[in-house]
Design brief:
15 helices, about 50% helix, two-stranded antiparallel ribbon, 6-stranded mixed sheet, homodimer, 8 strands, Tyrosyl-Transfer RNA Synthetase
Chain lengths: ~375, ~375
């Protein structure tokens, strides 16, 4: 199956190495010490060394990311959440943009409803995971409009960006295009660059999945042409997509494809038992002889991606599974045990987080 | 010379009848009693009868127009100015939009400088010509951002509009297109429709030259698809372009092509004498025999377009000129006399207007 990876569609098997080659995404020469980097879940970068220098020299930098307030916050959102918290701890000022204008334009939902989801689902989980109010600008696209100075800059930037890109270039970056996509792409460029209008020129890291790379490429192309602003070139990193329970895409519209942060431990355990795609063999004999395949085993992937932060323990599990010592059901039970521990702790933190929400909201 | 008439370029001889036929612009079945209508300077319309019904039945309606704050306010801006004042007198609420975001995006001028030009050149002249503060919303595109409620609606509308138009349609309406033009077109659609978000569904008249018709067509197409808003279809009228002094285009960048409202009477008179293209014959004998050609005579056109409001007097001048009784120099002198009277009166009114500016500004 040919893969399609762009802001509006992700499907098929993704060959990350080929993507890196085709689009000039670089491996890391230096990276922060964090599970996501160590385990190559974050696999590539553009201009990331600039951010490493800021971290090492304690120079200011910005992390910019957006969230589309739709549905439940689930494990598929964890990679970005963890990176926000990591970079905040490493000294970044966080620009956490609720793409409510985008969501509103796409789905015509109620702005108040979108606001509620953004706060109760997303922000609350970020706080529970460790986001701090200091150096965090949690804002709504639609709210940039409430501050004359910021909003003029914000919306003008989309308009000015439009003047620094040709139709051919848009076509080359996005493929099949239409006015709604162009409009959305320009707003994304404005999202990515506007922290530099507010802070002044400053290194900016945008952690994304490859589907968002067209926006990064467009923003980077435009930065070079808007010389009047003295923008510093945008840095980006690329993380893999967390597979859904059944092995394909994790989709907000299919609850059997994800584990939500608010799933009860019973439901979560049941989802792993019933739905998690296994890398085990067809029979006990075959499994003992050939061993399991951790690369395609969803339980193992969830351990690797965050449930088992201890590298040695993870390596042991991998080795035992591969050798056939550890059975598929046993691996699932290990995952379930850690998952329950994780969810119980997280849900406790979520309750505490509710009281901290106000510190993040200025309006 | 083939003519080109679109929002970004106007050149060549314009065949208004062909434009009407090609683009489905209708003649008037009923129209207000005003020089511009009587003399067919406003020559066509879309859905104008809806506005006539509002006028006759004293129902609320909106006039929406924009101004691009660049250079001096000159005679080429008079048609729109006169229509604003006419419709205000006929009961319209005026939405007078300073396209400063557009101007800023196009030229990267200073927003404060744009604001100054909009007020000192444009608004002051509108007031001198008779614009009243009551029922007049004189606003800056960039200021819609200062009111959360209005600005969210305003910018969201451009985004939502984007989702109701295909790339093919944009190509068909605008011809050669690029992201900046698409962005600008969507902002114009938002300009045209947003009064209905603020007032509720309400008939809206947008008086334009044919160059702006693509925006009208796009807005009208989109209105039909955004059924959730219950917008009332937009009405438009079309006025001819006032020719420049030398017969071609009136261009802000060529002072010998226009008469500015702030030109001294001496300079204005000199411009008519020296530059106004004449419809007179090559020799006195020929002129007496064949008569002048008022259709191409710029002095006569300026009399017709606003300097001589008395229809009988104008008809007499036309007849005398055509018959050869009135010489080209004499016609110019008549124009100069009325021009001086007009400018002296206007400049007096401008001085009074300065004190009224505050009544139009809320910020």
């Amino acid at each position: 199956m040919e893969s399609v990876v762009n802001p509006w569609e992700v499907k098929g098997d993704i060959n990350y190495e080929k993507l890196m080659q085709d689009f000039g995404i670089q491996p890391f020469s230096e990276k922060p010490d964090h599970l996501l980097f160590r385990r190559n879940i974050i696999y590539g970068q553009r201009d990331f060394q600039r951010i490493m220098e800021c971290i090492k020299n304690k120079q200011p930098f910005v992390l910019l990311t957006g969230l589309m307030p739709s549905g439940k916050f689930h494990f598929g959102h964890m990679f970005v959440a963890q990176q926000i918290i990591l970079y905040q701890a490493l000294g970044a000022k966080i620009y956490l943009c609720v793409a409510d204008v985008e969501a509103y334009n796409t789905r015509l939902a109620d702005l108040e409803e979108l606001r509620k989801i953004a706060i109760e689902e997303y922000l609350t989980n970020y706080i529970a995971l460790g986001l701090k109010p200091k150096n965090c600008d949690f804002y709504f696209q639609s709210e940039r409009s409430r501050d004359a100075n910021k909003s003029n800059k914000y919306y003008n930037l989309a308009g000015i960006a439009a003047r620094h890109v040709t139709q051919n270039e848009i076509n080359a970056i996005y493929g099949e295009i239409n006015p709604a996509k162009i409009s959305s792409a320009l707003l994304q460029v404005s999202d990515i660059l506007h922290p530099q209008l507010i802070e002044g020129p400053i290194p900016t890291i945008v952690p994304v999945g490859f589907d968002q790379d067209p926006h990064i490429r467009l923003a980077r192309d435009i930065v070079q042409r808007m010389s009047q602003f003295n923008f510093i070139q945008v840095s980006s990193t690329y993380h893999k997509f967390l597979p859904g329970l059944k092995g394909g895409k994790m989709s907000s519209s299919d609850p059997t494809s994800y584990i939500a942060m608010t799933d009860s431990v019973e439901i979560a355990a049941e989802k792993i038992k019933k739905h998690a795609f296994s890398g085990g063999r067809n029979s006990l004999e075959e499994h003992r002889k050939l061993g399991g395949v951790p690369e395609i085993d969803i339980s193992f992937q969830y351990l690797r991606c965050f449930l088992e932060p201890n590298d040695k323990k993870l390596a042991k599990i991998e080795e035992q599974y591969k050798s056939g010592k550890l059975l598929s059901g046993e691996l699932k039970q290990t995952t379930i045990d850690l998952l329950i521990k994780f969810l119980e702790h997280h849900q406790e933190q979520r309750e505490k987080a509710v009281n901290k929400i106000d510190k993040f909201l200025k309006n």
